[in-house]
Amino acid sequence: MTGPLNSGDCFIDGQWVTGEGAPFQKTCPASGEVVWTGRAASTAQVGHAVKVARAAFDTWGRTDQPVRRAVLERYAAELLRRKDPMALAISRDMGKLLKEASIEVDTMVAKISISIKAQSERAGEHSLPTEFGHLDLSHRPHGVMAVFGPYNFPGHLPNGHIVPALLAGNTCVFKASELAPSVAPLMMDAFEAAGLPPGCVNLIQGGRETGGNLIAADINGLLFTGSEHTSRMFHRFFAGRPEVILALEMGGNNPLIIWEPTDVEAATEIAIQSAYLTTGQRCSCARRLILPKGRFGDLVVESIAERARHLAIGPWNDDAAFMGPLVSAHAAAQAVAFQSKLIADGARAVLPLEQKDKNHGFVSAGLIDMSDAAPMDEEMFGPLLQVYRAGDIDQAIALANATRFGLAGGLVCDDLPTWERVKGRLRAGILNLNRPTVGASGQMPFGGPGASGNFRPGAYYAADYCAWPQASQVGDPVQSFE
Ligand code: NAD
What we know:
Largest sheet: 7 strands, mixed
CATH architecture of the largest domain: 3-Layer(aba) Sandwich
Organism: Hyphomonas oceanitis SCH89
InterPro entries: Ald_DH/histidinol_DH (IPR016161), Ald_DH_C (IPR016163), Ald_DH_CS_CYS (IPR016160), Ald_DH_CS_GLU (IPR029510), Ald_DH_N (IPR016162), Aldehyde_DH_dom (IPR015590), SuccinylGlu_semiald_DH_AstD (IPR017649)
Domain Aldehyde dehydrogenase: 16-463
Low-confidence stretches: 1-7
Number of domains: 2
Shape: globular
CATH superfamily of the largest domain: Aldehyde Dehydrogenase, Chain A, domain 1
CATH topology of the largest domain: Aldehyde Dehydrogenase, Chain A, domain 1
Bound molecules: nicotinamide-adenine-dinucleotide
CATH class of the largest domain: Alpha Beta
Active site: 249
Strand content: 15-25%
GO molecular function, one term: succinylglutamate-semialdehyde dehydrogenase activity
Distance between the termini: 84 Å
């Protein structure tokens, strides 16, 4: 297939409109073909989108919960109907393998029933009888939410903010990632077909300037998933405005500890999935591997290097591939540059991460020995795993915690007391035993301390930041004493 999947720009107040800002395009990092062309929303269009979202909030915010649920349930069905074009849009924009992009769409569909359950459990209406009558707990929406997502899950992650926000009664203005703009119009299409009233969800396309215009508009909340850098910038922007709810989900520099006793082959598989799935473009990917000093650790390094060397790499439509390209040729060059910096600081490439050619995003999986290197506590959003060695499990935990992030972590080990020790001390919001660090459950909260977020975890806990609680004491009817 050639040519852009669509050329729709912005969806505002239930209407498709051409952006009046700067033109931009996205090329597929696997083929180099242009897969999206369009224009960013202008400043006036961003302002208009927020205005219509505010007008729509008047009604949507007061719509009965069962009606909101029914619309979102229809949206789930409409997403399912669009599964193939949505998966294709994601794959071609960012190079994600089609099989993974299809799972992303399934996850978007599953998000609706999970969010309905979470909303009623965590933010529903509750009543408690008392001696004077009863206590009523209800939850109220904030208003207009600005939604930003990262390029690596351009459908699932914004959807993970939008669905709970709408369920709670908020309205949204969603700025799609400029690195993966194609799936967002299909989501709007699904909302429209589901009968969501105009103005409840609005889409604007564009990059940083458009994003800057959105946060500067009259919004009540910012629901953001993306990099630490952008997040900090937004956090500073909203300093002194506690009335604006900020849910910031950021990156990680995630550790995976593999410790004796365990099976080397099984541990290798967990490390491969953790570090290299989606070409390392998952916030929960393991970036740092911590192994015991000695023969067992050496065996694990050899085994991972051998497996990583033979990982199949291919374009999005290659069913046999394990890794697709990075999102762009630029991202691939940055990954190589990050590795070069580590090597210049004393690291040794066991298996170098290499860019296949300068014009595409393809890189090979890298494994790098950090024994004699100065650690760099930065997230490298690609398939590069840094190996550290520890003398005992306490040193391994200290190494794992030597990061300002706190998103994900893992332990591979068959000894339960070691797990208990690690679990109690490792600072990570997602901490797994004998499972890859990636592939979080939607039934659980997602987020972590440190530079990984502002303690507003998403996924199952997204209901919490989408509504504010209202506590009422409701007395029995006042008696007349005449
Ligand atoms: P990014 O921060 O560069 O971009 C995210 C969004 O912010 C995009 O829409 C972008 O246009 C916008 N943006 C960026 N800079 C801006 C600026 N100066 N002004 C206004 N808007 C701006 O993130 P990315 O590179 O798209 O995504 C990768 C990052 O996302 C990684 O750090 C990854 O760890 C993180 N991530 C986190 C989670 C999580 O749940 N914690 C999940 C996936 C990805």
